[in-house]
Design a protein that fits this description.
With 278 residues, this protein is mostly helical. It has one domain (58-258). It is 71% helix and 0% strand. The protein has helices spanning 2-16, 53-59, 62-84, 87-90, 93-104, 108-115, 123-137, 145-195, 198-258. α3 (62-84) runs parallel beside α9 (198-258), α6 runs antiparallel to α7 (123-137) and α8 packs antiparallel against α9 (198-258).
Length: 278
C-alpha cells in the first residue's frame, strides 16, 4: 500500500508545478496590488508626508492657538530669568568689597553711596540700601540694622521669586488647557458618531480626534520644560540668597562690633512717702 501511494504523490508534485523554462520569455512580476492603482504598494504614512507643523496647530482649534501664545510667553520668561538670575549680577565682588570696607570703618554714608552705584540693581545693593535707609530713620540707630536687613532680604527674595512663579503658573495651566482641548475634541467626536453616517462621519471623527490629541500634546510640550526650568531657577534663587546672606552677616558684624551695647536700665523705684512724725 505504501509502495503505491509514494509514486502517486511524486506524480502529483510533478504535474502540479510547471517546470521553469528560462527560454520561454521574461519572468512576469508579482500580481498588482488591488488596493492601489498600478500595483504600487500601499504606504500608511504616505499621507503624512505633506502635513506640516502648522497643519497640526490648526487641527487643535482655538485652544491650540492659546497654547502657542502661552509657549511664547514662557520662552520669554525663561530667557529673562536666564539672563537675570546670575550670581555675578546679584552678588558682585566689587560691591561686596566696597561695603566691607565702609562697614568696617563704620561709615553708613559710604555704604549707602556704594549701594546706589553701578550695581544698584543687584540683590546685595537693594537689601543693604533699604536696610541702611531704615537705620537712618530709626530711633535705635545701628541696633536696627540686623532686623532691617532681614526684612529687606525677605522682601527682595519674594521679588526675585515673582517672575519665576509665572513660569510655575504656566507649567500648571498648560496641561489643564491641553485637557480642555482634549475634552472638546472628544465631545465633538462622540457627537459626530451619533449624528453623521458614511464618509462624512469618518472625516469629522478624524478631525475631532486630531483636535483632542494635538491639544494633549501641546499641553505636555508647554508644561514639561516650564516645570524643569521653574525648579532650576528656584534653586538658583536660593543659592543667590544664601551666598548674599553670608556676605551680609559679615557686614553686620562690623557694625555690631563698633556699636556699644546699650546700658542696662535701672528699675524705677516708687517714691518714698514722707511720714509725718508727731
Amino acid at each position: 500500500m505504501t509502495a503505491m501511494v509514494l509514486p502517486l504523490l511524486l506524480l502529483a508534485q510533478t504535474t502540479g508545478a510547471p517546470p521553469a523554462n528560462p527560454a520561454s520569455g521574461p519572468a512576469t512580476g508579482p500580481a498588482p496590488n488591488p488596493a492601489t492603482p498600478g500595483g504600487a504598494p500601499s504606504d500608511p504614512t504616505a499621507g503624512l508626508a505633506g502635513v506640516s507643523l502648522w497643519d497640526y496647530i490648526k487641527d487643535g482649534g482655538l485652544v491650540s492657538y492659546i497654547m502657542i501664545a502661552l509657549s511664547i510667553v514662557a520662552l520669554a520668561l525663561i530667557i529673562r530669568n536666564a539672563l537675570y538670575l546670575r550670581r555675578a549680577r546679584h552678588l558682585p565682588l566689587e560691591l561686596a568689597q566696597k561695603l566691607d570696607m565702609a562697614m568696617a570703618a563704620g561709615s553708613l554714608d559710604e555704604a549707602s553711596r556704594a549701594c546706589s552705584g553701578e550695581h544698584a540693581d543687584s540683590f546685595l545693593a537693594r537689601v543693604m540700601g533699604m536696610a541702611i535707609e531704615r537705620v537712618r530713620r530709626s530711633a535705635f540707630g545701628n541696633l536696627e540694622l540686623r532686623s532691617a536687613v532681614e526684612d529687606a532680604g525677605a522682601a527682595e527674595t519674594e521679588r526675585m521669586h515673582r517672575m519665576n512663579d509665572f513660569i510655575g503658573i504656566i507649567a500648571a495651566v498648560g496641561p489643564m488647557l491641553g485637557l480642555l482641548g482634549t475634552v472638546v475634541g472628544m465631545i465633538g467626536a462622540f457627537r459626530t458618531i451619533g449624528t453623521l453616517t458614511g464618509a462624512a462621519r469618518s472625516t469629522q471623527l478624524a478631525t475631532f480626534m486630531s483636535m483632542a490629541l494635538v491639544n494633549t500634546a501641546e499641553g505636555l510640550i508647554v508644561a514639561i520644560p516650564c516645570t524643569i526650568m521653574f525648579a532650576i531657577y528656584r534653586r538658583r534663587i536660593e543659592e543667590i540668597v544664601d551666598d548674599s546672606s553670608r556676605v551680609m552677616e559679615r557686614l553686620i558684624s562690623h557694625i555690631s562690633a563698633a556699636t556699644p551695647a546699650p546700658a542696662p536700665r535701672q528699675a524705677a523705684r516708687p517714691a518714698a512717702r514722707e511720714v509725718d512724725r508727731t
